[in-house]
Amino acid sequence: MKHRPSARRLAAAVTAVLAVTAGTLAAGPAALAAAPAAAHTAAAVSDTAAAPVPYPGDAKIAGAGTTGFLTRSNDSAQELRWTRYADGTSTEVTYAQGGGIDVTGTDVLVIGDSRFPNQFRTFTLRDMGHPDAGSVHFDLGSVFPQTTATYVKAVSPNSALVRVTKADGLSELHLVVSEAGRVSERPITGLSADARDFFTSAPVIDGKVLVGYDLGVTPVPEENLPTGGRAVIDLLSGKVEKTYTSATSGYLSNPLLFSATQVGWEEGTSTGGERAVVTVDRTTGAKKTLPLGHPEETLTGLVGDWLVYGQPTALTDGWKAPLGPLRAVSRTTVGEPVELLAYATSVKPAADGTLLARGGTLDKGEGLYRIAPGADGTPTAELVATTGKPTALTYLGDEVPDVIDFKGGVAGLKWRMSRVNADVFMKLTNQKTGQTFTRMLKLSRESGYVYDDTSFWYVWDGVLEDFDGTRPGTPAPNGDYTWSIRATPQNGIGPVVEQTGAFKIARSPKLHDYSDNGTPDLLARNAAGELFRADTLEGRASGTPVKVGTGWKYPQIESVGNVGGTSAPDVLGVDAAGVLWVHPGTGNAQKPFGTRVKIGGGWQVYDKLAGGSDLTGDGRADLVATDKSGVLWLYKGTGYLTAPYASRQKIGTNWGIYNQLTATGNLAGNKAGDLVARDKDGVLWLYLGKGDGTFATRVKIGAGWNQYSQLVGVGDVTGDGLNDLYAYGPNNTSYVYEGRNDSWRAPFWLRKATGILLNGGTTYNHVS
After folding, report:
1. Residue 228 has pLDDT above 50, yes or no
2. Most exposed among 468, 478, 648, 767, judged by the fewest C-beta atoms under 10 Å?
3. How far is 237 from 234, CA to CA, in rounded Å?
4. If you ran DSSP here, which 8-state letter would residue 613 be given?
């Protein structure tokens, strides 16, 4: 059986609408006259003007209340939480499976029996501001047993508007009220007879509510879609106060906007399908339209005479929002829009005439902001709940190593920022030479530069002057460096961030690294006695050979590694008189050798030298030499420049069959250095070092090697961590044999042609 509410009951229900806005429950119709709109707004703001409380992470604002607010998490769980302004207490709001929740702009939440509020047939009104108070329950099937009724909007802690569908397909809007467990209902009068599909997203303001609806009857031809109606309803009298016409219905898709002085709604325009916000002055009837362009979603609201507008964006978006920041524009005066927030993810209206927006400002950071009229009526944004995180792009630190040794061939350089949706210009600079390495890093998950939500990195291979990634560049020498980053937010939120730091490159000395840059060099002499240094990079030439000396007329020249105890490799030269000289390495790419040091005479007895490998396992480079009778001698390294070798030891005979010896370092995977030897028939033999200065039985590894005039154990020229062999031919042919670690019987892959020593236009008679 239906019950019609008396005027007294209806007035009491509406009075409760205003009372809950102010945060207290009033009794009787007299409270309506004693509670003007301005008083309610001031009371609500005053109640929550304390220090900001914690905000639940990145959740969106789902509902505004007087004593707290509702949030919905962005994850798949879509968790709802109610947070109190007074103490920050956060409580999960739950509902039955298959159900849903609606908000009212007050502390009252509506929990219904469907995921979609417009389909609620049973629902419960829960006052989150008074959790100990009893809930109010409605079963519309019992109230309207002869027809179908569904929920539209709760308008007080114990009343709601519902849509009643009649047998002829038309609809009526009714108010249902629960008092002392007894439910009564009453139709709203003054609506058009063909009004249907009632909806609203606006809270009750001063006892009045704005309702939207379709005009026309179903079915209608697709090309003649019904227009929309808007009505301000006085809940005290149950009558329509004012109606408006909209170009489109906007049922459940376009928000309705409501303030004490303005009404508004979104609708499509006739210009290319643009969206627009229409506002109407409730006193003068002046209508204004604000085009919004073509955003997929919008954020709109009214604060007094000001329209708040924007589009939902995330702080981590990699694009600039076409509508820009969240702004407000006056609907009664002419002037520029006022920026409220740098961005917003969500906005919800409150019954006190304010808005709650989840977003951020550059000065106060991330959180929940209340948008309310300032002293002159212009909206301002006050932070009421904070995540504690910055909105402006903020530098948080780096994980750039203080010292980089490139032991793995690369170095990971990592930086941390508050977010990584930025375009970063990275620059590494050698402090001595001024050489640089630069990259523009457009950060995104797809780019590979992003490590996690707050970190990005670059894996650097130690190459400088590689500006566009297409030129080979030059290896970075050891020494002091600075790094700098300049990060520009991709979404335009906040200023550019610039930061600098320093690091050092300090690699361990390499056998053939005369330029102190971690990659092997080759020394080549021409017929005029000019010595050239040729740098390499990943198996190819790095620049043209550089002349580093003259007068190098030695019959024998051998690169022997660091035998003088410095940090750079040295070179031996035996002159025509048989005197042995050491040219100590300096690590300077332009002047790689210091003043030569005389070691001793009598070295004319040797026709072949091979140095650089650690044959004895003590960590120092040794030297082997064959005399003209074919005896092989070991000179163990000492580490002293003036006496770099101990007394010789005889370690073999019959080595006169070879016309070239080459120390290759470790080829077989053990700890000892190895040798390769080429016989007079061009067969190449491998001698695996035992680590005590002697060698295992030789292994044949190939034939046809007499096509080369020089074989050089150059070290790791390809950058894969394995020692390689370089071969130079008499007709300016140049090859690299890459080392392999899967078979000591075949220690090299097939040769690869290279431009090393070929780009200087000079023919060389010696390479080491």
Report:
1. yes
2. 468
3. 6
4. -
Q: What gap in Å lies between CA 276 and CA 293, rounded to an integer?
A: 7
Give the separation between CA 328 and CA 373, rounded to whole angstroms.
Answer: 11
Q: Name the token pair of 605.
A: 């007895």
Token pair for 429:
């600079």
Enter the tokens of residue 281.
């002055």
**Tokens of residue 758, six digits:** 């070929």
Question: For 239-263, what is each residue's pLDDT tens digit?
Answer: 999 999 998 888 888 899 999 999 9
Cβ-contact 724, 704 below 8 angstroms = no
The two tokens of residue 457 are 């990195």
Residues forming a β-bridge with 611: 623
Given this model, what pLDDT does residue 495 score? 97
Long-range contacts of 397-405, Cβ-Cβ distance < 8 Å, separation of 24 or more: 398/499, 398/501, 399/455, 399/457, 400/483, 400/501, 400/503, 401/503, 402/503, 402/504, 403/503, 403/504, 403/505, 403/506, 404/462, 404/503, 404/504, 404/505, 404/506, 405/505, 405/506, 405/507, 405/508
Q: How far is CA 315 from the centre of its chain?
A: 11
Q: What is the mean pLDDT of residues 177-184?
A: 93
Nearest-angstrom CA–CA distance, 213 and 65: 26
**pLDDT tens, position by position, 564-621:** 888 789 999 999 999 999 999 998 888 999 999 999 999 999 999 999 999 999 989 9
Q: Sheet containing 597-600: give its strands across.
A: 556-561, 570-574, 580-583, 597-600
Residues 97-123: pLDDT tens digits? 999 999 999 999 999 999 999 999 999
Residue spans of beta strands (DSSP E) within 89-217:
90-92, 100-103, 108-112, 122-127, 136-139, 148-156, 159-165, 171-179, 182-187, 195-199, 208-215
Would you state the structure tokens that stand for residue 260, as one six-digit string?
A: 């004490």
Helix (H, G, I), strand (E, B) or coil at 389: coil
pLDDT given at position 759: 75
CA distance 223 to 120: 31
